[in-house]
Specification:
192 residues; alpha/beta; Rossmann fold; 6 helices; binds guanosine-5'-triphosphate; binds magnesium ion
Length: 192
């Protein structure tokens, strides 16, 4: 099966409340630690360089909205857990992310929580998972950067992630090889 082609257009970046939050179109939001590959994953799904990515953590600094097929939004978030940020900056991002996810009026379709498969689930990720469950949001976990795992490590690393995630769906992914693209595409485009 070939992947469906997505028409993707950058719309805007926001720092707080904005009309786009109340726009009724569903939002698929990509969250995770800084540098885990959120922006690259969006680019890999849409098949072009739309979201800005960087080898240095802290690249995405606002909530970036991309309109997909005229019908839903992909939303790229700043990362959490980036230790080199000042205390004030960390607090700013924590509040912005929590407001957007849990208190804004946004119409969530799905949250895609991205983790680094070569690092595994960190305490920051555990905290996010617990908050998403607490707030009853629909989410999936993406075990990203799987291309970095040697074959000998891969099974054990992925098994540990799936075991800890229990019933939460886990998609094994690589923006470098496109492994998992079809599976993730099905989840994000699934009729709701
Ligand atoms: P912030 O915006 O800082 O929160 O980062 P981010 O999560 O958006 O990460 P970004 O997409 O900017 O990628 C960070 C680095 O990881 C870049 O150097 C990417 O090239 C690299 N990267 C992203 N996805 C993959 C992947 O699947 N495999 C490998 N090997 N590297 C990846
Ligand atoms: Mg980013």
């Amino acid at each position: 099966m070939t992947d469906p082609t997505l028409e993707a257009v950058y719309v805007k970046s926001i720092n707080g409340t904005d009309d786009i939050i109340r726009d009724n179109k569903l939002k698929v939001t990509f969250i995770g630690r800084s540098n885990v590959g959120k922006s690259s994953l969006i680019n890999s799904l849409v098949g072009k360089k739309l979201a800005r990515s960087s080898s240095r953590p802290g690249k995405t600094v606002k909530l970036d909205f991309f309109l997909i097929n005229h019908s839903l939004f992909f939303v790229d978030l700043p990362g959490y857990g980036f230790a080199n940020r000042s205390k004030d900056a960390l607090e700013h991002y924590r509040k912005l992310i929590a407001w957007y996810l849990f208190r804004s009026e946004v119409n969530h379709k799905l949250i895609v929580l991205i983790i680094d498969a070569s690092i595994g689930i960190t305490d920051y990720d555990r905290e996010s998972i617990n908050l998403l469950i607490e707030h009853g949001l629909d989410f999936v976990v993406v075990a990203n950067k799987v291309d970095k795992l040697k074959m000998s490590q891969r099974d054990r690393a992925l098994k540990a992630i799936q075991t800890e995630c229990k019933d939460i769906p886990v998609v094994v992914y690589s923006s470098v090889t496109s492994e998992g693209k079809g599976a993730l595409m099905n989840l994000v485009l699934k009729k709701k």
